[in-house]
Amino acid sequence: MTAAVRTEPITVPVALDARSYGIVIGRGLLASLGARVATLRPGARVVVVTDENVARHHLAAAEAALTHADVTASRIIVPAGEASKSYQVFERVCEGIIAARIERSDLVIALGGGVVGDLAGFAAAVVRRGLDYVQVPTTLLADVDSSVGGKTAIDSAHGKNLVGAFHQPILVLADTALLDTLPAREFRAGYAELVKYGLLGDAAFFAWLESNWREIFSGGDSSKSSAREHAVAVACRAKVAIVERDERETGERALLNLGHTFGHALEAACGFSDRLLHGEAVAAGMALAFEFSARRQGLIAPAEAKRAVRHLAEVGLPTRLQDIPGPPPSVDQLMELIGQDKKVKRGTLTFILVRAIGGAFIETDVDPREVRTFLSEKLAER
Ligand SMILES: NC(=O)c1ccc[n+]([C@@H]2O[C@H](COP(=O)([O-])OP(=O)(O)OC[C@H]3O[C@@H](n4cnc5c(N)ncnc54)[C@H](O)[C@@H]3O)[C@@H](O)[C@H]2O)c1
Ligand SMILES: [Zn+2]
Fold it and tell me: What is the full DSSP assignment across 337-377?
């Protein structure tokens, strides 16, 4: 194996007037965290919020980078997993930030995946009526999705992400080497959100992923080591472009939900457990969205839908209901869960459908009976 090739970092600018910032993507960037913080906020103290897994692998390096630039840092470590997006852990994080004497001129650093980003970002949004924060994503999902766009939240007993705020970070530092310690299954689940950008709006990117996905998975150990950084940058640019036009999700931002209506129903049917990770549910959901679109006369050619599904299956993501371990959900259960989704309006359902790979659109007039027939057939294929 050759040594990891370090390439120049790629910066994706996010233009939101006074809240503009950059997403910096590159291998080995964590070492520059302290210098970047010191430049952005001279004299600021910081508190690093992270989870137990990430702390084990990367906290020491993050703290060393901060200390090296004379930045005073303290830490808050929460248990790993979605359960940390709770009121109890949120309270601990808020109290921890206050106890660390983080003031308006200081910074919160979210070092972790989407859970830490959402939790620490929301705490930063509300403690002292708003503190600046930096995202240092450590999962592929966080690199391409949760760290981009400024949505932060914790979970309610009524559903996921129901208590939160829009709060943009002042910097996202995406060190792609941090993904080398990510369990393969988590990496693959994040890849579903990455390929989503190709499937929803960028056919050329999808085709590039079909040829280059292995280099993205292997990261720094191949001669094409910039594939991962390039892919993250393309995905971030795609999400940023949508967020810049529709920050508060009044329209176009909904395209990012491709695969998510079916996906959420499957996730909920599995009890949001390890049986099906979010990204895995999104992969299966995108496959269903393509197949459902293909059933609609002339919407998308069946061969094109098959091509989308084939790539998801090729990287090892679930694409069929029978790929999901455990007892299958019933059609009634899935319809009930789809109906509970916030996208229901006056008896019709809203889905993100596709006219082509790269050609997603918002369809607000889907007849629930059509969805029921489709899902019954899919379940019968088992
Ligand atoms: N705010 C948004 O716009 C947005 C968008 C999508 C998802 N989300 C949220 O993101 C969350 C999911 O994020 P996630 O998939 O990153 O999950 P996660 O943060 O739970 O991370 C997944 C697992 O990987 C571990 N881990 C993280 N980085 C690691 C590393 N570098 N090495 C080894 N282990 C590591 C974590 O401890 C955890 O066990 C959900 O709560 C979801 O609601 C938010
Ligand atoms: Zn998602």
Answer: HHHHSTTEETTEEEEEEESSTT-EEEEEEE-HHHHHHHHHH
Segment 12-66, tens digit of pLDDT = 999 887 788 999 999 999 999 999 999 999 999 999 999 999 999 999 999 999 9
The SS3 call for residue 316 is: coil
DSSP H helical ranges for 108-225: 114-126, 140-141, 184-201, 203-218
- Residue 209 sits at the vertex; the CA angle it makes with 207 and 214, to the nearest 5 degrees, is 140
108 CA distance to ligand 1 middle (Å): 18
Kindly report the protein residue whose alpha carbon is nearest to atom 42 of ligand 1: 114
- Tell me how far the alpha carbon of residue 141 lies from the centroid of ligand 2, in angstroms: 8
Residue 220 reports pLDDT greater than 80: no
Task: Report the share of the chain in percent with pLDDT over 70.
Answer: 95
Nearest CA to ligand 1 atom 12: 114
Calculate how far, in angstroms, residue 32's C-alpha sits from the geometric centre of ligand 2: 29
Cite the active site residues: 129, 151, 193, 239, 249, 253, 257, 260, 264, 278
* Strand order across the beta sheet in which 360-366 lies: 344-345, 348-354, 360-366
Q: Assess contact for 119 and 109: CB atoms under 8 A.
A: no
**Residue 67 amino acid letter:** T
